[in-house]
């Protein structure tokens, strides 16, 4: 089946959750927190989606300034159709929306650690996460 790609086409929280639940990201995202999921969609300023007919089969969700850096916070492709180039197309289309020198940055899910170097990403060893302000010393 042909895949159609759309840039900044709104999707519902339910469509997003349905897709994520068919990927390894589903267990890493708060699928039972509708307000959080909706906020994730509402506040992303670059959303590239992959469709087969009326079915959402892939998404790249980003927060970016379009000039210097773009954080791709979600890259998800339905596990039933992975390894067909959809993830790579989502990345390529996302990058094409950015200025040429804008860096695309992401944190890899554990099961995707080996995927990104194969398609040209460089490993960066200095990412840090603060989940709770009370951890700040």
Tell me the fraction of residues in β-strands, as a range: 15-25%
Output the radius of gyration: 15 Å
Q: List the secondary-structure elements in sequence, H or E.
A: EHHEEEHEH
The first-to-last residue Cα distance is: 53 Å
Multimer state: single chain
The helix count comes to: 4
**What can be said about the biggest beta sheet?**
5 strands, mixed
Mean pLDDT: 92
Q: Biggest sheet, strands in spatial order?
A: 1-2-3-4-5
Percent of residues in helices comes to 10-25%
Low-confidence residue ranges: none
The class by helix and strand makeup works out as: alpha+beta
Shape: globular
Strand runs, count: 5
Describe the protein in words.
This protein has about 140 residues and is α+β, with helices and mostly antiparallel strands. Helices cover about 25% and strands about 25% of the residues. It contains 4 helices and 5 strands. The protein has helices spanning about 15-20, 35-40, 85-95, 115-120; strands at about 5, 45-50, 55-65, 70-75, 105. Strands 1-2-3-4-5 form a 5-stranded mixed β-sheet. Strand 4, helix 3 and strand 5 form a beta-alpha-beta unit. The chain is globular. The mean pLDDT is about 90.
């Amino acid at each position: 089946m042909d895949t159609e790609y759309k840039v900044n086409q709104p999707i519902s929280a339910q469509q997003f959750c349905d897709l994520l639940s068919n990927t390894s990201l589903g267990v890493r995202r708060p699928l039972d927190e509708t307000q959080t999921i909706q906020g994730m969609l509402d506040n992303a300023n670059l959303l590239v989606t992959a469709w087969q007919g009326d079915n959402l089969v892939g998404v790249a969700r980003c927060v970016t300034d379009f000039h210097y850096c773009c954080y791709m916070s979600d890259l998800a492709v339905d596990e039933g159709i992975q390894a067909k180039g959809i993830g790579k197309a989502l990345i390529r289309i996302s990058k094409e929306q950015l200025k040429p020198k804008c860096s695309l940055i992401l944190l890899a899910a554990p099961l995707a650690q080996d995927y990104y170097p194969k398609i040209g990403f460089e490993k960066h060893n200095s990412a840090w996460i603060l989940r709770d302000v009370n951890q700040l010393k």
